Amino acid sequence: MSTTTHTTEEIDQTKAPSIHLTNLSYTFPSTHSGLSNLTLSLPPKSRTLLIGANGAGKTTLLRLLSGKRLAPSNTISIGGLDPFKDGLEGVTYLGLEWVLNPIVRTDIGVKELLKSVGGDHYPDRKDELVRVLDIDLDWRMHAVSDGERRRVQLAMGLIRPWRILLLDEITVDLDLLSRSNFLAFLKKETETRECTIVYATHILDNLAEWPTHLVHMSLGKVKEWGEIEGFELGEKGYGKTGNSRLGELVLGWLKDDLRERGPRNKGTTSEGTAYLTGGLGGYGAEDAIKAGKRTF
Ligand SMILES: Nc1ncnc2c1ncn2[C@@H]1O[C@H](COP(=O)(O)OP(=O)(O)OP(=O)(O)O)[C@@H](O)[C@H]1O
Q1: In the chain, what are the domains?
Q2: Ligand 1, atom 13: closest residue by C-alpha
Q3: Ligand 1 proximity of 218 Cβ (cutoff 6 Å)
C-alpha cells in the first residue's frame, strides 16, 4: 500500500493533472546518470514542449512520468500521485516501443484495429480521429505507407480519452497537413477536456502557437522552463532567418548546449546505449507490470 498522503483535491480523477518534479534525479542500472536534480511545475491543461538535443534526457523523463520506471520517492507528483507506486488512470505514453508494435504491419484491417483499442466504446472520438488524421477505414495495414501507418497508430493511441498524454516524437512520418491537423486536435483536447500534454519533439514547424510551456533539457538537466510568454519570442511569426521565432530560440539553445558539452567523441556522453532491452539498463527493465501495478 502506498504510504504517500494525498488531499482529496489532489487526487480528483476528473480534473486535468498537474505535473510537479522536485529534485528528480535518475541513475540507470548501468550507473549512467540519466537525469539530475529536475525541479519544475506544469499546471493542469498545459501543453508542454520538451526540447533538447539527442541524448538530453527527454525519453528518460517521459518514461518516469508514465510510471514505466521507478523514480525516487516524492520526486514526481502527477495530480498528487506517484506514477510508478500509485499507478495512474488515463496515462497515454506514445513512444518508440508503441510505434514498433508489430501488429500494425500485419494483414489486418483498420476497422478491426480501431475496434481492438476501444473504438466501439468511443465512436465519436474514433470518427473524429479518423477525420483529423485522414484515415481510410478500408486500408489493410500490410499495404499502407509509413505515414499512413503512423496515422492509424496515432488514432489507436488516442481513442481512449486520456488525462495525461506523453508524446515522444512520433509525428516524423506525418505530412505537413496531417501534422498540423493532429496538433490542432491535441490543442482542442486540452481546451475542451480535463487533460494535460507533454510532447518531446525536434520538429518545430507550425508549433509557435501550440505550447503553453517550454522545458529545455541538456545533459540530463533542465536548463530553463516556464510559460511560453516568458521566453520573449517577440511577435509570433518569422524571424530574420525565415525560421519561426520558436525555431530560432531552440536553435540558439542547442548551439549553446553543444558549445558547453563539446563533441561527443570525447567520451562525455553515452549515446547509443538507449533502448537496449537486455542486460544492464535498458528501458523496460523495471516496468510496472513486474511490480504488479499494471496489467498491460
Ligand atoms: N538504459 C540505459 N542505460 C544507460 N544509459 C542510457 C540508457 N538509456 C538511455 N541512456 C542514456 O541516457 C541519456 C538520455 O537518453 P534519452 O533517450 O532520455 O535522450 P533523449 O533526449 O530522449 O534523446 P533523443 O532526442 O535522441 O530521443 C543518453 O545519454 C543515453 O545514452
Answers
A1: 45-242 (3.40.50.300)
A2: 55
A3: no
